[in-house]
Design brief:
The complex is a heterodimer of chains A (224) and B (206). Chain A is an alpha+beta fold and 224 residues long. Chain A has nine helices and four strands. In chain A, helix 6 packs across helix 9. Chain B is of the alpha+beta class and 206 residues long. Chain B has nine helices and four strands; from the N terminus they run E-H-E-H-E-E-H-H-H-H-H-H-H. The chains are: A alpha+beta (224), B alpha+beta (206).
Chain lengths: 224, 206
């Protein structure tokens, strides 16, 4: 690693996608400059670095730009191999990648749509779909402290940033209980474990402000 | 080699996702047993056992364990069989670029082309524009390289197999034109080289 590694991260405080990158950088003790972006007013820097998607997170490392949170996480892991995020074993790696896709595609979609629905019945149907999907994660956690085993890793960052520290806050805002202790004891235990991890705690949006923000975003969608 | 070590692939003859995995197995010279799945008709107990979550192909079975999602499978193969034809570059930044563009092909381009060809009439114009723009980005990214992977077929080429082979068929069948040789000379040249490759040719549908 070069003496003067320049790392910059463009993110948004409420975005689970940029938060998970921060968790990885903190886990590896990599110093970085953080640039807070505003959704409604994207900076010229963001637009220049990510003209294709115009989204965060964007990682800039020694002048090179990397986009897409999963791609960034893998890049960080390969560039700074200490404190690995992904498992070493190819099969375990494939499982982590597979479940990360499930989280960010199916679970995320169902989750956000459930918040955007104005009718209670519609929400409950979507909540049930979310539960079915999250059950697969529940099964993955049996016998483990974290998805990564004894320590946090790739899937903990992806699922952690999105589900307990984003979707659940949105659901709280609309009074919808999706993940119960009764049906998801492993998941609940995992969240408690996550909350004790310093680097995760440091990288999670402040709760009340976040619940309010999620409510505001959902309301905007519902009224549009 | 015992039974468990043997590689099995559950696939669908016409699926670009399934073919991605076959292409990589062929490029790396990995012998495998192919099992055709009647995905739209009767899903086999084997498929339901090995991919209970999505019930889709492709599914790779190796050492008694299953891996699903085509690009996850490709990375698994790359991680496991390290000696032969490398699909991903060595440098972390180049790898990140390859992963980014593969995701772009999957999430933006393929989806837009499918919606443009098969989606509702009302959305057609919008989707065609989106697909066109996506393909233009890829055209630019390819530049004057032989393949997206450089001199040899790599991760993005494999992900873009749809463009190499299926897009022509889709356009013909749906009557929607998105990619023409005139507008996309670079991608056109690439697709000819791609489907002309011996290993790729071997796995393409008749």
């Amino acid at each position: 690693m070069a003496e003067k590694d320049q790392v910059k991260l463009l993110g948004i405080w409420a975005s689970p996608f940029s938060r998970r990158v921060e968790m990885a950088l903190k886990l590896k003790g990599i110093p970085y400059d953080y640039v807070e972006e505003i959704l409604e007013n994207k900076s010229p820097l963001l637009l220049a670095l990510n003209p294709i998607h115009k989204k965060v997170p964007v990682l800039v490392h020694n002048g090179k730009t990397i986009l897409e949170s999963h791609v960034i996480l893998e890049y960080i892991d390969e560039t700074w191999p200490h404190n690995p995020i992904l498992p070493q074993d190819p099969y375990e790696r494939s499982k982590a990648r597979f479940f990360a896709k499930l989280v960010d595609e199916q679970i995320m979609n169902v989750g956000f749509v459930s918040m955007a629905r104005a009718d209670e019945k519609g929400r409950e149907v979507l909540a049930e779909q979310a539960r079915e999907l999250i059950m697969y994660l529940e099964k993955e956690l049996v016998g483990k402290d974290y998805f990564g085993g004894k320590t946090v890793g790739f899937l903990d960052f992806v699922a952690g940033s999105l589900i307990p520290f984003c979707l659940e806050r949105g659901w709280e805002g609309i009074g919808l209980e999706v993940i119960t202790e009764e049906k998801f004891p492993e998941f609940k235990k995992w969240v408690k474990n996550l909350e004790k991890v310093e680097i995760v705690k440091d990288c999670v949006p402040p709760r009340e402000k976040h619940v309010e923000h999620m409510n505001y975003m959902a309301e905007r969608v519902r009224s549009s | 080699m015992n039974q468990e070590e043997q590689v099995k692939l559950m696939g669908l003859w016409g699926s670009p996702f399934s073919k991605r995995v076959e292409m990589v197995l062929k490029l790396k010279g990995i012998p495998y047993e192919y099992i055709e799945e009647d995905v739209y008709g009767n899903k086999s107990p084997m498929l339901l056992k090995y991919n209970p979550i999505h019930k889709k192909v492709p599914v790779l079975i190796h050492n008694g364990r299953s891996i699903a999602e085509s690009l996850v499978i490709v990375e698994y193969i790359e991680d496991t069989w390290k000696t032969s034809h490398k699909i991903l570059p060595q440098d972390p930044y180049e790898r990140a670029m390859a992963r980014f563009w593969a995701k772009y092909v999957d999430d933006k381009v393929m989806l837009a082309v499918r919606k443009a060809c098969w989606g509702p009439e009302s959305e057609r114009e919008k989707e065609v524009k989106e697909a066109y723009e996506g393909l233009k980005c890829l055209e630019k990214e390819l530049g004057d390289k032989l393949f997206f992977g450089g001199d040899t077929i790599g991760f993005v080429d494999i992900a873009a197999d749809f463009i190499g082979y299926w897009i022509g068929i889709f356009q013909e069948a749906s009557g929607v034109t998105i990619m023409t040789a005139e507008e996309f000379p670079t991608l056109q040249r690439w697709s000819e080289d791609f489907v002309g490759n011996n290993f790729i040719k071997e796995v393409l549908p008749p």
